Amino acid sequence: MRGIIRGLFVTALGLGSVMAVTPSSNAATTPPGCDGSYFLCVYQLHDYEGDQLFTSQSNTNWDYLGNPAAFRNMNDKMSSVANTTSRTYAIVAQHDDLGGYQYCVTPGARRPNVNNDIENKSSSHKFVSSC
Amino acid sequence: MLKTLNRGPQGVRRTASPAVLAVVLLIGAAGCADSGAADEGALAISPSAARQAAAGIYVGTGRLDAIEQKLISTCMRAAGFDYQVLPQQQDRGVPQDYADDVARARTEGYGLAAEQARTAASIALDEADRDVSPAQQARYREALSGPPDAETASARSPLGDVVEASTQGCRAKAWTTLYGSVKNALAFSEFRLNTVRAVLFRARADSAPVQDALKDWQACMADRGYPDMEDRNSARGLAFVTYDDVDMTQAREFELKIAEADATCDKASGYSEAARPVEDEALARFITDHEAEVTAVQEIQRQAVAAARNTSAE
Known about the structure:
The complex is a heterodimer. Chain A is of the alpha+beta class. Chain A has two helices and nine strands, in the order αββββαβββββ. Chain A is globular, with a radius of gyration of 14 Å. Chain A starts with a helix and ends with a strand. Chain B is built from 13 helices and two strands; from the N terminus they run ααααααββααααααα. Chain B is mostly helical. In chain B, a hairpin with a 5-residue loop joins β1 (about 150-155) and β2 (about 160-165). In chain B, about 65% of the residues lie in helices and about 5% in strands. Chain B starts with 17 loop residues before the first helix and ends with a helix. The relative contact order of chain B is 0.17. Chain B has helices at about 20-25, 45-55, 60-80, 100-110, 110-130, 135-145, 170-180, 180-205, 210-225, 235-245, 250-270, 270-290, 290-310; strands at about 150-155, 160-165. The chains are: A alpha+beta, B mainly alpha. β8 of chain A pairs antiparallel with β2 (about 160-165) of chain B.
């Protein structure tokens, strides 16, 4: 079932709603590159620094082989995150399929320093209407 | 591990604040006869009462969220934008991300079908908001969240987690109307959405009996055709993400099957039986150690409920 689900997922959602960019410094209060074009902005380092990944993909296991390299590279490496949606929450979790330690990022909020329970351990996300 | 702020001297019973005492008194005598709690004399609240005390934080939150959305919508309309809101939903309770009732799991699963339908609606509205020209999108974002260089407010949870957001725009205005400030809104949402969950998760992760039961649960799930359950909430998580991947009928069928297996294996492994007292003890310890922060969050909630009564967004 799981393999079938994952195969359908790629077919249904495609791979267009993700973007990775090179690191940049930005003194503005909005995290670098996180201009609202995508729902979730994920950063490798604290304070929205390091490698960046922007996505609107409704859910995925980041290390899934069908994903772009940007997702796979962020697996177990994320340290800060911003949710730019208007009203949709984001769950980020330690393991695949929302397993293990998880936390919710509310619409319009961001976390500059993901805590020790999950720093460099995040592996999946899903958008939800509430947490 | 949890920090131990506001602790009294070791072994000395602390005097609980009026707010915590009120919670204990409201809960009644049921919390007075716990067994098996270590160092119970040092706790400001009994483990059996702690879960109900934590549940109090969630009372009225469905309505608060709905009014927040209506306030944002009104503000956005004044700025020239049509901001659609989702229907109000029921209050959430203390998080439980696994099934422990076989009969309920068999018929209701984890209750994810309704949640996923609402999620799809939420995402569709967010996508529609952005399906405009870049210039219009920028104006929309500024109306909602202020300019890119807007000042931010931040809140730090009792566990040390920091969350921040813009202090400008319609969302900040709605938060300020309801919660008194953006910082208060962030503190309240972080507490109810993440802090309580983290306390429970850490307690289970640190308990050898719970981890032993987890292994038994994983073996049971593997026997039933679910071999990759990394943690106790993995079954629910897999069921939830499945709704994004296949049609609702297939996903619902899958949810009911895996939830039934989840609950059946819970009974077989004794997981809930092992986890429940550990979780309750951790909640009691957390409320004791972070009494000032818990009281502050309760006060934010009380004021928000009062503000909601007075808002024209009702």
